[in-house]
Amino acid sequence: MRDAVIVAAVRTPVAKRNGGLSGVHPVDLSAHVLRALAERTGLDPAEIEDVIWGCVSQAGEQTGDIGRTAVLAAGWPESVTGVTVDRQCGSSQQSVHFAAAGLIAGHYDVVVAGGVESMSRVPMGFSAQGANPLGDQVLARYDGVRPNQGIGAEMIAERWGLSRTQIDEFSLASHEKAAAAQDSGAFDGQLAPLGDVHADEGVRRGGTLDKLAALKPAFREDGVITAANSSQISDGAAALLMTTSEKAARLGLRPIARVHTAALAGDDPVIMLTAPIPATRKALSRSGLSISDIGVFEVNEAFAPVPMAWLAETGADAKSLNPHGGAIALGHPLGASGARLMTTLVHHMRAAGLRYGLQTMCEGGGQANATILELL
């Protein structure tokens, strides 16, 4: 029976907005990780059949099917195709799902999944440019409310009774874990440095609750969501080389993990950010595993209340959640984030010898992907 395995995973360091990667065209940022995959595995790119590439703001420099132009920029054969996916923040996690489905169905033997976002060069919301992307009927269905992620995070904090102090404590811990990972070299094997950027730029050291408490709320005057407990606007790219176990053996490649289970869930698009909870339940139910079987969780830190509510609802071990920090510390280059989380996940699973890992992330429109990987 055909399966889908990950044999390599790389990412750029995640750079701050207007930081060290802001001078790099998103096509070239994408090409960099594609070349890194081929170099690290020794695989002839002619073996790769498709590149499935996540990107959220498909406008300006990120338009025109950046998945295909990235292939050409990488210098790969013209026979290698590329397609671009938008499932909002989960775009490159969805790319992994599409790649896995294609491999299992026999549509591919070797494929790359990943994504990119240069939020410095193509700002968030740039593609809408004042238009109404919802249409009249969606607005009418939700009483004229235009969903806002920041307000959704405030709604989660209120619903789950999360205080400003609790949320800020979670955020500080994200930075502390990311700093410890940098210091220990935990990220070294997954990074493909570019130019002078050798490490994730968003990690802040020496933060205190007093410093965070001084920040003004970003979305409500009396709210709890600030810049410090939200994900960072960032630039970056990440990519995973995927194939089947049989093809990997034929090519002399050693798989890291296989895609055990993939699931999707939808939820209220106004609160928007709660779908990782039903997506996780669905993935566990489909897999036949329990929450206690999972050794590590990567839950995207779009805003601190998202993984905090997820923890409360799933009963997962908090010590196994985002052990190397999350988007609050590392940044959130939208179209790249799903692949960035998965790259971090598979490297950690291999280093720690963890059999199962689960990744999930909230997405615009009240959606979420959930993926369970099994170490090989």
Task: Summarize, please.
The protein is an alpha/beta fold and 376 residues long. Helices cover 36% and strands 18% of the residues. Strands 1, 2, 3, 4, 5, 6, 7, 8, 9 and 10 form a ten-stranded mixed sheet that branches.
Describe the 3D structure.
There is one protein chain. The protein is built from 12 helices and 10 strands. The longest helix has 21 residues, at 164-184. Strands 1, 2, 3, 4, 5, 6, 7, 8, 9 and 10 form a 10-stranded mixed beta sheet that branches. The protein is globular, with a radius of gyration of 19 Å. Helix content is 36%, strand content 18%. With 376 residues, it is of the alpha/beta class.
Pick out the low-confidence regions: none
Classify the secondary structure makeup into a structural class. alpha/beta
Q: Give the SSE string.
A: EEHEHEHEHHHHEHEHEHHHEE
Total DSSP E strands: 10
| Sheet having the most strands | 10 strands, mixed
Please give the share of residues in helix: 25-40%
Radius of gyration based on Cα positions: 19 Å
- Put simply, the count of helices is 12
Strand content of the residues, in percent?
Answer: 15-25%
Shape category = globular
Span of the ends, CA to CA? 16 Å
Average residue-wise pLDDT: 97
Annotation keywords:
single chain, about 375 residues, alpha/beta, ten-stranded mixed β-sheet, globular
Q: Which helices and strands, and how do they pair?
A:
Blueprint: E1 5-11, E2 15-16, H1 26-41, E3 50-54, H2 66-73, E4 81-85, H3 91-105, E5 110-118, H4 135-141, H5 149-159, H6 164-184, H7 209-213, E6 234-243, H8 245-251, E7 257-266, H9 276-287, E8 296-299, H10 305-314, H11 327-330, H12 334-352, E9 356-363, E10 367-375
Parallel strand pairs: 3-4, 3-5, 8-9
Antiparallel strand pairs: 1-6, 1-7, 2-6, 5-6, 7-10, 9-10
Helix pairs in contact: 1-2, 3-12, 9-10
